């Protein structure tokens, strides 16, 4: 029983990381129609930026870790905004060029990170509580899983409130539906789209800091690894659906944990789940039907 509880909770924690990355992908595609293959770079940069801050202030202190989360979030948001302004904005409605540019950016940034921080993984530590465990129904659950779950829930709630109950959220949703009309009203839709990219990058940067704590290391390939599963989650949940991304993150991560433990084929399970959803419901679990 304790093993099942451990796998279930750690699977939910892994799903929380998937959601933090997938939420940005889903938000950017759903509101802007952009498939951003460089999204993993925002995560990796956030992880490295957070690590640089934490190691200077003390990686084992809460001050260092909390400031690392803030800096990682800001780093992801800043580079995402620059990406939208310099690379994506000139290519709206040119989807092939968008894919080529973001794929190229993703490859270039991995090489850049390797040049700055090296090719080997850098093992890290955190505050004592995060390194400890909490007993739940006989299972010793790593505390960093609880933190990841709590942050993912807060991010989901914050994004939904922002989109539904703020002026900018309403402008973004209206701009997606009818950009010409919103522009005619004197509203700068482009600024709103930059904000969307920034929010997606911020979620990825925050996810990078938590992912480095989850895995115990930071490396130039951390974002690329998580990006694969984030895309799977985004497609299964339905492109553009935050709720779908949250549900799909759990449906992917939890079976993946059990399959890894009992069969050693967790990644295969995730790919099979994607194939089944694409065959049965190509629009995703909560995506709009074509």
From TrEMBL:
It is found in: Cell membrane. It is a multi-pass membrane protein. One of its GO terms (biological process) is amino acid transport. The keyword Transcription regulation does not apply. Pfam families: BPD_transp_2. One of its GO terms (molecular function) is transmembrane transporter activity. One of its GO terms (cellular component) is plasma membrane. It comes from the Bacteria. InterPro entries: ABC_transp_permease, BCAA_transport_permease. The keyword Isomerase does not apply. The chain crosses the membrane at residues 6-27, 34-53, 65-87, 99-126, 146-163, 193-215, 227-254, 261-280. Keywords: Amino-acid transport, Cell membrane, Membrane, Transmembrane, Transmembrane helix, Transport. Belongs to the binding-protein-dependent transport system permease family. LivHM subfamily. This is Amino acid/amide ABC transporter membrane protein 1 (HAAT family). It comes from Georgenia muralis.
């Amino acid at each position: 029983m304790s093993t099942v509880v451990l796998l279930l909770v750690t699977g939910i924690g892994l799903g929380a990381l998937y959601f933090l990355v997938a939420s940005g992908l889903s938000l950017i595609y759903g509101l802007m129609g952009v498939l951003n293959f460089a999204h993993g770079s925002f995560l990796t940069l956030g992880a490295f930026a957070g690590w640089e801050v934490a190691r200077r202030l003390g990686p084992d202190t809460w001050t260092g870790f909390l400031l690392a989360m803030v800096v990682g979030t800001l780093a992801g948001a800043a580079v995402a905004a620059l990406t939208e302004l310099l690379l994506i904005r000139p290519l709206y409605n040119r989807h092939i060029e968008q894919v080529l540019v973001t794929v190229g950016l993703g490859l270039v940034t991995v090489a850049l990170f390797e040049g700055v921080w090296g090719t080997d993984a850098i093992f890290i530590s955190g505050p004592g509580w995060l390194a400890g465990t909490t007993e739940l129904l006989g299972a010793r659950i790593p505390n960093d899983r609880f933190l990841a779950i709590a942050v993912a829930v807060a991010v989901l709630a914050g994004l939904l409130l922002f989109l539904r109950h703020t002026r900018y959220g309403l402008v973004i949703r209206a701009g997606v539906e009818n950009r010409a009309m919103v522009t005619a009203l004197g509203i700068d839709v482009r600024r709103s789209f930059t904000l969307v990219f920034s929010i997606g990058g911020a979620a990825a940067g925050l996810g990078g800091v938590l992912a480095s704590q989850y895995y115990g290391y930071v490396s130039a390939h951390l974002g690329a690894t998580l990006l694969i599963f984030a895309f799977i989650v985004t497609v299964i949940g339905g492109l553009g659906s935050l709720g779908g991304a949250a549900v799909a993150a759990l449906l992917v991560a939890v079976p993946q944990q059990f399959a890894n433990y009992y069969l050693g084929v967790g990644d295969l399970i995730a790919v099979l789940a994607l194939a089944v959803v694409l065959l049965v419901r190509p629009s995703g679990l909560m995506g709009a039907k074509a």
